[in-house]
Every structure is written in C-alpha cells, then in structure tokens.
Model the fold of this input.
Amino acid sequence: MLTIKNQLEKVGMLNQPELRENLQRVAKLYASAHSDREKLVELEVQQRLKAVTNQGMAIIQEMKQATKQDTLFQIVVTSVQMALKSDRVMLVRFVDETQVHVIAEMAGYGTPNLRDKVLPAGCFGRNQREDYLGVSLLAVADIYETQLPTYQRHFLERLQMGASLVLPVVVGGESWGMLAVMSGEARRWHEVEMNLLQQVGSELC
Done:
C-alpha cells in the first residue's frame, strides 16, 4: 500500500480528492483484513496449545497404566511424537559416562532406525553424563542459527533434522538418560510443549 501511495504522490494524483478518498478506503480495508488474519492465526495457535496440554494429561494416564518397562518406553515416544507432531522422538539411557543406548524410538517412514544403537552422549548437546545434571531442557529452534557442539550438529544433519528439544532425565540425583524430540524443519518450541515434555519426563523418574 505504501508503494502505491508513494507512486501516486510522485505523479501528483493524490491531489485529486476522489482518488485520495478511494485510496484511504482501500488502506482501511487492507489494515482490517491484516488484523483479522493475525487474530485467526493467534486463535489457531491457542487452540493448538490447548490441545497439547490435554494430550499431555492423557499421556500421563496411559503411562501410569503400563505394566512393563518396554511398554512404558514405547508409549512415551509414540505419544510424544503424536502430541508434538514431531518427526522423530528418541528415549536414550546412559551406558557409561560418554555413551547412551537408544531404548525406544519413533520416527517417520524411510528414516534411519537407531533403536538399540549406542551413540555418543554429545549427539544430544553435552559430552559427559554429569554435564546433563542441572540442565532442564536443551532447545534448538534452528540448527543453522544456533551455535551447537560439533557432535550434535553433525548428528542432526545426518538425520536431516532442523530443530530439537532434549530433556535430560534424572533419577536418584544421577543422569539416567534423555528424551529427545526432533523436527525436520526449523521450529520455535512453545512453553506448553516444553512443559509436556517435562511432565512426561517426571513420570519416567
């Protein structure tokens, strides 16, 4: 709108009252439509976040009903992937001070299967087991806009992931493992999504 107005000003056409009034009407209509679109987007976001909260409560209930550990772990990765609409969710457990074992995974069709693989802990943001203590979450919205450790960047690039959200799981005051959510594209993680992950993690403890 500003470009059109500037062009008309240059040629002196805004001096015509009728044209000036029409342009003002168009500008008001444009502003109104833009405002309505922003409100619609905000409403959709709020509805999405409310749905995530409800799904989080449902996941916790399902976890409490699990009678076997393997079943519990699979419920976690499957349900979290569905709730957060992510491309990959992994639950890993430390096997020593620098390595983790992938004990449960949910990923899209045709992507590398890492279940039962042993990976460097550095793939998730910290190199040592003790380095995850005291860390609430490791959120990466865009791997190309964030300064990441070499291991983590290479790992995400190899999986063709553009964003990640990692929750360190602490049991008995010691680092037990991590619950990692990944997205194929850059993604801004919302607080309610982080809260869901933390709620699920607390049940694992």
